[in-house]
Amino acid sequence: MNEQLIHSKITSMEIDVLRAVKQRTLEKFTEGPSVERARLFFLLLPYFDEKHWSGEIEASAKTVSIVYAALHAHDQVKENASATKKQQLTVLAGDFYSGIYYQMLANLNNITMIQRLATAIIKVSEKKASFHDGLERTTAELDRSVQQIETELLATFYNFYGFDNYTPLATLMLSYIRYKDELECLQGGSETRIIRALNETLQHPLHTERWLLEKLDILHDQISLTINSYNFNYDLKNFMLHQITPHQHRAEQLTREG
Amino acid sequence: MKLKLLYSDLKPELDMIEKELEQAVDSESLLLNDASLHLLQAGGKRIRPVFVLLAGKFGNYNIDVMKQVAVPLELIHMASLVHDDVIDDSEVRRGKPTVKAEWNNSVAMYTGDFILARALEYISEIDSPKLHHILSKTMIEVCRGEIIQIEDKYKLDQNLRDYLRRIKRKTALLISSSCELGALVSGTDEKTAAHLRRFGYFIGMSFQIIDDILDFTSTDEELGKPAGSDFIQGNITLPILCARKNPEVYSLLKNNLGKELTEPERLHIVKTIRDSTAIDEAKAISERYLQKALEELAYLPKGNANKTMRKIAFFIGKRKF
């Protein structure tokens, strides 16, 4: 499967997901559902890798994407802001998407998947809450929380359909994408809950920036090695490497320049 | 008389459910554990579990099966409350600080997501596609109701049908589903389940209308928030719809809707509605739903459960706060 076909399949899935959660008022007043293409790629990875795939698996993959959208909507609710119309509807958007994914799985009679995803949501919520509990954590602990937040739902999906072998790669790549976004936020002067937690642990934003750059370098190397350990075809391998190449070696540059 | 006394026969089962609820919100995150227990211990009427159990009495009642539905329905209700407090920016619920006030909005969001997921984890022990179809549809409709409520805020010229459709989704559907699911898991016949579903719907409608009336007729202390809060927040409820028929009252409401009210202005609006015929008119509509609920009970086998449902219906019609 070439790069164009991969993009086209992801787009088709994106359209299906957006259609499933379409709601006029939410569309008008909120940022709309967050359907990240990187996550869709990983949900579809077994398909791209020509493993057993069916309409039922694809429908389940869509529901996982909707759960991500639901939890993401609730991440957008400002910590201490008062209730604007946008904020009110963002709360409801998350709840609405949750209802949709539940209904979709109920329509598929996939009750076991409802339960597995519910367990995964519990774990993700617990990890997200850990960024607000005021307890001191090491960077390794924070890193584990970030990994779990990013990949728990996907790992549950893989596990359910026997695709566990993709979990290590997805964990590395989704963590990479998360930290890349965090670095951009930090350099752009905004503070996220992850940046705040890292600042508290590392005690200075400059240390946080260095930690993020080094982490990205480490992840980059790990991803390259891991991708090569799979029997992916040339196009698929290239597609994944293409996702991370522009960001490599920034820590080294900072060291040389700084 | 307190509502809980009406279903004192169910006390052992409700105590069991209370314990299950505590276990259900147990989390490896101390923060989520504290926030969920904070919400749970604020109390509540537990009306949804009560209706699940009572509906189950019309079939093959087995508490171990019934609690598989009763617990998650209460959890779903709790999850919606903790999110509603973020939506309404509420500082106090049942006389205690809300989760968002005690911690912050983000913690409230994660607490709600956690509790809802626990509910689904719990109820998915039941392998009944029909049950999950009903519940998932209800959850979506409840959300739609809340979305419409936000859309309809500050619209004084909306009609009665808009209001009724909103409260159906917001309140009546979950109570109706509690009755229907209780019937379903206890294996009642379809006719009985349909009567119970309709009973729940009519009771739910009446319950919400009375709630909306009490927002004007109760004291601040009884409500645990300022009387007239619905109006202050722009929610157009039945007493307001009835009161606006008087042109003078309409002008008063129109001129003050969405405005930051002074204390005398708020009290004046509350008094105007309280002294108008609106309260009686709204009560009459609630009474009609109550009668319909009682009619449904007449189709069901006589017995303790029927009697208790009847008593609850009468109580709801007469409750003071």
Strand order of the largest sheet of chain B: 1-2
Strand content of chain B is under 5%
Mean pLDDT of chain B: 93
Structural class of chain A: mainly alpha
Question: How many angstroms separate the termini of chain A?
Answer: 43 Å
- How many strand elements of chain A? 0
Strand content of chain A: under 5%
Order of helices and strands of chain A: HHHHHHHHHHHH
**What overall geometry of chain B do the principal axes of the alpha carbons give?**
globular
Largest sheet, strands/sense/barrel of chain A: none
Determine the number of helices of chain B (DSSP H or I, runs of at least 4 residues).
Answer: 17
SS-based structural class of chain B? mainly alpha
Q: Got a strand count of chain B?
A: 2
Per DSSP, the total helix count of chain A is 12
Most extensive chain-chain interface: A-B, 50 and 48 residues
SSE ordering of chain B: HHHHHEEHHHHHHHHHHHH
Radius of gyration of chain A: 19 Å
Radius of gyration of chain B: 20 Å
Question: Rough shape of chain A?
Answer: globular
